[in-house]
Design brief:
Elements (H helix, E strand, L loop, with lengths): L1 E7 L2 E6 L10 E2 L2 E2 L7 H13 L2 E14 L5 E13 L9 E6 L13 H8 L5
Parallel strand pairs: 1-6
Antiparallel strand pairs: 1-2, 1-4, 2-3, 2-7, 5-6
């Protein structure tokens, strides 16, 4: 999986899952699955176009997280910085999206796999 830390003026874009999805109404970063033959960066650019209608310039990888969920599932997440994109944000899949200050990320209920990253970002680490 590849996910974006879309940044502008000290804020990052986050999305809330819909009520009909697994882990309903929890917050996450935009992104998704890496398809066969895609690099993580290519997958992320495609996902951001599909989810938000933007053409993103995918920057450097910020971190990689492997998380094992209690129900037995596992996820391998790669997070990339996105400092520029063209197009207007068009929420196509989330319950809601919002820009939030990095230090306020801990005020949201994020997916379990993202929580260590959230603490680091809110503390001013990584970026």
């Amino acid at each position: 999986m590849a996910a974006a830390l879309i940044l502008r003026a000290g804020e990052v874009l986050i999305g809330q899952r819909r009520a009909d999805q697994p882990m309903a109404l929890q917050w996450e970063f935009p992104g998704g699955k890496i398809e066969s033959g895609e690099s993580p960066e290519q997958a992320l650019a495609r996902e951001l176009d599909e989810e938000l209608g933007i053409k993103a310039v995918v920057g450097k990888r910020v971190t990689r997280i492997r998380h094992n969920y209690r129900h037995g599932g596992a996820v391998d997440l790669q997070f990339f910085a996105v400092h520029e994109f063209t197009g207007e944000i068009d929420n196509r899949i989330f319950h809601q999206v919002r820009w939030t200050k990095l230090e306020e990320l801990t005020n949201y209920e994020f997916l379990a796999a993202d929580r260590g990253l959230i603490r680091d970002l809110a503390a001013g680490k990584l970026l």
